[in-house]
Amino acid sequence: MMTTGTMITRRGFGAVLAAGLLATSLAACANSDTGDDAGGGGTIVLGFSQVGAESGWRTANTTSIKESAAAAGIELKFDDAQQKQENQIKAIRNFIQQKVDVIAFSPVVESGWDTVLKEARDADIPVILTDRSVDSADKSLYKSFIGSDFVKEGRLSGEWLVEQTKSATSPVHIVELQGTTGSAPANDRKKGFAEAIAANPNLKIIASQSGDFTRAGGKQVMEQFLKANPRIDVLFAHNDDMGLGALEAITAAGKVPGKDITIITIDAVRDGMQALADGKFNFIAECSPLLGDQLMEMVKKVHAGEEVPVRVETEETTFTQEQAKAALPNRKY
Ligand code: AHR
262 exposed, middle or buried (CB, 10 Å; 0-12, 13-18, 19+)? Predict the structure, then answer.
């Protein structure tokens, strides 16, 4: 598996430090006389608003952003929105007030960004979206969106299930653990999965509810699903963490995960891959969190006034149990 991010993300600590110091001094030389940024020494200042720390994926994404900023010599002002849109809006307004050079963020939900994005545009501060996008009709409100194709992740998950169940002659009962309500990955993964399973009329989603992308949420909602539905054949969880939480509920209910209930998740973080290799999960569609290097490259280009692509899609793959066993030893997150 190779993602566009992984190609240049993994470096030894010494190399990262050296590259960071070099890039910092080069950036300082290049920008010291422009006087057009908030970094005292001419360094590019990036304001980044992160969704929160809801999952293993998010933790890996935050590490990637911080390491890549340091390696690129970019001053990072990092804000954790704790899964709340109002916190992100507040953070973006703070970044505007501080006159940062570039703003980047991963929007917790898709809607409701136009006003604050217009404020950034009026202040002449370019905005880059990472990981999740917004549903603004005015695409000029941001320079680019770097991230995964969430619809595709849902579709690949559904297609795998269609293949596995092609000889089924009776209804297959599916429960779905959705991500954060209103978020792009929850909306898109649901859509892609539903479209794919429509190919087999025996595949029926009998319950679907948000577990907010957390382990605790996944466990709690799965407990409810198990109580309300005597027969569950398949769990589709919108991320590994909710699937991992659900494992506890399934085991506590006396069922064997991966055998009594087929489990499909998205992300492929280390804990998820371990569950897949151990036979507790059955299939994972990958979503790479290693977006830091691509983001920093784009921050530099945008700051220099260069044209950038409006969409940069992350390259991803899928894993079966056997593929997870082979990939685990080299898994980076
Ligand atoms: O936006 C990416 C999603 O957010 C990941 O799949 C999930 O784990 C995270 O919380």
Answer: buried
- Amino acid residing at 290: L
φ and ψ of 93, to 5 deg? -65, -40
For the CA of 57, the nearest atom of ligand 1: 8
Checking if the pLDDT of 282 tops 60, the result is: yes
Q: Is the pLDDT of residue 34 over 60?
A: no
Q: What is the CA radius of gyration of the chain?
A: 21
Q: Which atom of ligand 1 is nearest to the CA of 131?
A: 1
Alpha helices in 210-291 (DSSP H): 215-228, 240-252, 270-277
Ligand 1 pocket mutation, candidates 54, 213, 270, 316, criterion most atoms within 8 A of CB: 213
Cα 190 to middle of ligand 1, angstroms: 13
The strands making up 262-267's β-sheet, listed across from edge to edge, are 203-210, 172-178, 234-237, 262-267, 283-286, 318-320
Q: Tens digits of per-residue pLDDT, 204-263?
A: 999 999 999 999 999 999 999 999 999 999 999 999 999 999 999 999 999 999 999 999
Residue 68 CA to ligand 1 centre (angstroms)? 19
Structure tokens, 321: 């149990």
Ligand 1 contact, 285 CB (< 6 A)? no
Q: Does residue 52's CB lie within 6 angstroms of at least one atom of ligand 1?
A: no
C-alpha closest to that of 3 among 310, 329, 290: 290
Q: Is 317 exposed, middle or buried, given 0-12, 13-18 or 19+ CB atoms closer than 10 A?
A: middle
Q: What is the pTM of this model?
A: 0.88
Q: What is the DSSP letter of 312?
A: E
Q: How far, in Å, from the CA of 329 to the mean position of ligand 1?
A: 23
Q: Annotate 272-286 with DSSP letters as a single string.
A: HHHHHHTTS--EEEE
For ligand 1, the distance from its centroid to the CA atom of residue 10, given in whole angstroms, is: 21
Please tell me the distance from the alpha carbon of residue 180 to that of residue 185, in angstroms, as a whole number: 8
